[in-house]
Amino acid sequence: MNTAVQTRSQQRSVVNCRVCGKDGLAPVLDLGATPLADALLSDADLVRGDEATHPLEVAFCPSCALVQILETVPPEEVFARDYPYFSSFSDALLAHSRDNALELIEARGLDERSLVVELASNDGYLLRNFVEKGVPALGIDPAEGPAKAATAIGVPTMNAFFTADLAQQLVDEDKRADVVIANNVLAHVADTNGFVQGIAKILKDDGVAVIEAPYLGDLIEHCEFDTIYHEHLCYFSATALDNLFRRNGLFLNDVRRLPIHGGSMRSYVSKCDAPTEAARSLLAEEKETGMTQARFYADFARRVETLRDDLLALLRDIKAEGGRIAAYAASAKGATLLNYCGVGNNMIDFVVDRNVHKQGKYMPGAHLPIRAPEALLEEAPDYALLLAWNFADEILEQQQAFRDGGGKFIIPVPEVRVV
Ligand code: ZN
Questions:
Q1: What is the CA(106)–ligand 1 centre distance, in A?
Q2: Is 252:236 a contact under the CB 8 Å cutoff?
Q3: Which of 17, 118, 265, 381 could link 181 by a cystine bridge, Cβ 3.0 to 4.6 Å?
Q4: CA–centroid distance, residue 18 to ligand 1 (Å)
């Protein structure tokens, strides 16, 4: 590793909690120094050979119950390249989003006088459902490619980072939201409090913010350690969210557990303190199971090591018998899994992914080439390691031809199994 990079990284580590500012964070898991999980490499990058790595350590704050990583890679670095993620590449995500939108229109009585603002609106995959029903919408997203794609399909989108300042600017332009949607973005922002303050600013007094994030309880219970990467700074329990919202003038009033992304939680947040039974009981449950205490996380690291050892043993057995292995999905979680387990091109020949923007590039760290899904049929490897196990049902169905030809999938999480 480049010494200059290492020094800079150390300066960026937090010793105080990124939300409440207190010290005394308890270590949970150390995944080692890894490259950014979304930083796919081009041929030229591979030749240059100067891939930066950053420490990836997870800790628990005993004061506000927030699980977080210690390193903050600046957003300029995270978003510096052409961000390759387009939400519309997943059928399951599209269906999930449409249901969410239609339900909100109905429940909130949204019409042509309303405004729905989505933070990290990507390619407009969610907001298009509001626009189609005549409800005004505004997307805000820092990634240029997806923001342009959204505008092209008729979803007004600002190409910007959402901050408290930007929220104020919109309020000054008389743009206040009946509904603010923030799906899978809260964990990504370095200024967590500032982001939530922005939501409080832009939300009308009787408005609701609907915020989805992977649920920490599922991460721990199902050993989803590969959802930990530098782009995900926080891993939320309801308790940690409740604390975060309260300190910024908002209240966690309703919660819904969702199966998407290996287990997520949708929070309904507003300006009055009026928790539903669902919110109250999840908070009580977290207290009871001990999620609000450091000792709850004590055996997580050992469970992750066991999963790694099981996976490596299986891959070595397959190689020893002359088997060929590919991987499915050039996902960020795939990068964490491959890099933490030390799996590279000595074991896996290539990765396939449906996203054409990823094809022709290489996985960060592991440097596996990324090809189109058709390569699974052309090369007919014996096994495909599934690096997007959160879409397992969808992918297994799409890859029926590979399986009919004798190909098997290795699903690594929550425990290693072959299907
Ligand atoms: Zn804290």
A1: 37
A2: no
A3: 118
A4: 7
